[in-house]
Amino acid sequence: MRVIVNGEPREISSASIDALLGELDYEGTHFAIALNFDVLPKARWAATALKSGDEIEIITPRQGG
Q1: pTM (two decimals)
Q2: Is residue 29 domain-resident?
Q3: CATH number of the domain that 47 lies in?
Q4: Of 1, 4, 35, 51, which has the fewest Cβ atoms less than 10 A away?
């Protein structure tokens, strides 16, 4: 299905947020997810189904000044 991840259109095979993170090789737990501009609690990542046209933002912390 076609979704937008961090502002870029992508073709994905994942059906849920947690599966998408695996597909995109995100590891660890130190990031936040926004789905269609709403922050999604980590407890809902596995249960949240993706659909064509969804906009997903994966927000990772950065160090620096």
Answers
A1: 0.87
A2: yes
A3: 3.10.20.30
A4: 51
Distance CA(32)–CA(52), nearest Å, equals 21
In a domain, 65, yes or no: no
The rounded distance, in Å, linking the Cα atoms of 30 and 52 is 26
Q: For residue 64, is it within any domain? A: no
Residue 45 domain-assigned (yes or no):
yes
Token pair, residue 4, equals 């937008």
Name the DSSP letter for residue 31.
-
pLDDT, tens digit (0-9, with 9 covering 90-100), for 9-45: 999 999 999 999 999 998 877 889 999 999 999 999 9
First to last CA, the chain: 38
